[in-house]
Amino acid sequence: MISRHVLILGGTGDARQLAERLAKRDDLRVTLSLAGRTAAPLQPDAAVRSGGFGGVEGLAHYLWEERVDALIDATHPFAARISANAVTAAKDAGIPLIVLARPAWQQAVGDIWIQVDDVAAAAAVLGEVRRTVFLAIGRQELAPFVAAPQHRYIVRSVDAVDAALPDAEYILARGPFGEAEERELLLRHGIDVVVSKNSGGDATYGKVAAARELNIPVVMVRRPQPSGAAGVASIEEVLAALGHALGLPAERGE
Ligand code: NAP
């Protein structure tokens, strides 16, 4: 059987799940691509490559060299650069691009959200009065909070943080995080305000729901501009779109 090569741009749980689902098919060869930021990423039951491609040209070259038949962008909604590169590289290579675009969280009744455009604005909006702040935004964009040393920070990330904040406690943990455990964390640390990216999805929504329940405000960082490519909202829709694009028979036993 001719097997078609599918490259998944990953770094999310959705991408890992997709890779594992597609790797079971004997009519596909699947490669999951990671940026290489996480020291010990969860390993899927699929082939993995790691590290940047070297911009659009590097990605386009990889697509050509590895005879990739379809590209799936299942990166995090805040990973704007690789998503933009994927649009151009797939077009240059003349292959279909399927984008998994998790819908953003919507403010619900009872949510106290302060929506800002980026992490720097989130640091600025915390104000002058000392507060205990839960930073649940990963470890790569903590620098703006160095300029707001009046606050106490509880910082959660998968890997250890390099740039230390003056008054901070660090928690190393990997999601998903349920609402009950997030509620317990917010109470245990006496959190006054949560800073979150609007990532969408279920895996990290627990803190948003727990904050609502406890009447704790959330500084919610809006998403960057999307890449312009039309996206689908679920893994099932990606599988359907891929099947359509490559003319594949439906998955058996799923
Ligand atoms: P980014 O700003 O869009 O990407 C920066 C550069 O990292 C890209 O230009 C590319 O390098 C490389 N890169 C990113 N994703 C890659 C992938 N899947 N495979 C190979 N190279 C990749 O992205 P980011 O915000 O740094 O995020 C990096 C990774 O972490 C992404 O895979 C993303 O899904 C994941 N992640 C990000 C966030 C977030 O909040 N940003 C949260 C959770 C997970 P070259 O130009 O050299 O190809």
Protein architecture, described:
With 254 residues, this protein is of the alpha/beta class. 29% of the residues lie in helices and 22% in strands. The chain has seven helices and twelve strands. It has helices spanning 13-23, 55-65, 80-93, 119-125, 179-188, 206-213, 235-246; strands spanning 4-9, 28-34, 47-50, 70-73, 97-100, 113-116, 132-136, 152-157, 168-172, 193-197, 218-221, 231-232. The strands form two sheets. It has a six-stranded parallel beta sheet, with helices on both faces. Strands 6-11-10-7-8-9 form a six-stranded parallel beta sheet. Helix 2 (55-65) crosses helix 3 (80-93) and helix 5 crosses helix 6 (206-213). The longest helix is centred in the middle third of the chain and has 14 residues, at 80-93. The protein is elongated, with a radius of gyration of 20 Å. The two termini are 20 Å apart. The model has no long low-confidence stretch (mean pLDDT 95). NADP nicotinamide-adenine-dinucleotide phosphate (NAP) binds next to strand 2, helix 2 and helix 3.
Share of helix among residues? 25-40%
User: Which distinct ligands sit in these coordinates?
Assistant: NADP nicotinamide-adenine-dinucleotide phosphate
Structural class: alpha/beta
Helical element count? 7
C-alpha Rg (nearest Å):
20 Å
Number of DSSP strand runs: 12
SSE string, helices as H and strands as E: EHEEHEHEEHEEEHEHEEH
Task: Report how far apart the termini are.
Answer: 20 Å
The description of the largest β-sheet is:
6 strands, parallel
